[in-house]
Amino acid sequence: MSRKCEFDLPPEEGMEVDRQPEDSTRSAFDEGCVQLEDVKDMRLEAEAVVSDVLFAVSHMHVSQALNNALDVAYINVETREGDRYCLELTEAGLRVVAYAFDRVDESLSSQYHETVYSLLDSISPGYREAFGNALLQRLERLKQNGQ
């Protein structure tokens, strides 16, 4: 008898699925269910996003005022131009949810970006310039180290 968890997807038509006979010492998670470590913690992802691009913006931090959770986190960013945004980070990507820190404007409908680089590139010429300069500096260091 095989157990099925709510995360199991049926195999596609014509696809064979190899399953081992059930071992009484296995937990339900051993049967192909999604384990907790497979789920991204958006709070940790948000911290990584901030540390990755902090050099190219005026100010950026994970919101402490908004409710961050496993599936959503909010990031406040001030661009080099002085514009403030609140960003929402989910599995779908990043999007602007307000034009102020620690706010979510439900009436704002903005597109999702797969990466923070794409989002910042679309809203901040200063980010593009800082990112380009950092890239040039890195290439210059690689060139010097290679000679």
From TrEMBL:
GO biological process: regulation of canonical Wnt signaling pathway
Organism superkingdom: Eukaryota
Residue stretches spanning the membrane: none
Family annotation (Pfam families): GSKIP_dom
MF GO annotations: kinase regulator activity; protein kinase A binding
All copies of domain GSKIP, residue ranges: 43-142
Compositionally biased spans, kind Basic and acidic residues: 16-26
Region (Disordered), start-end ranges: 1-26
GO CC annotations, alphabetized: cytoplasm
Similarity-based family: Belongs to the GSKIP family.
Record's protein name: GSKIP domain-containing protein
The organism of origin for this protein: Denticeps clupeoides
Phylogenetic placement of the source organism: Eukaryota, Metazoa, Chordata, Craniata, Vertebrata
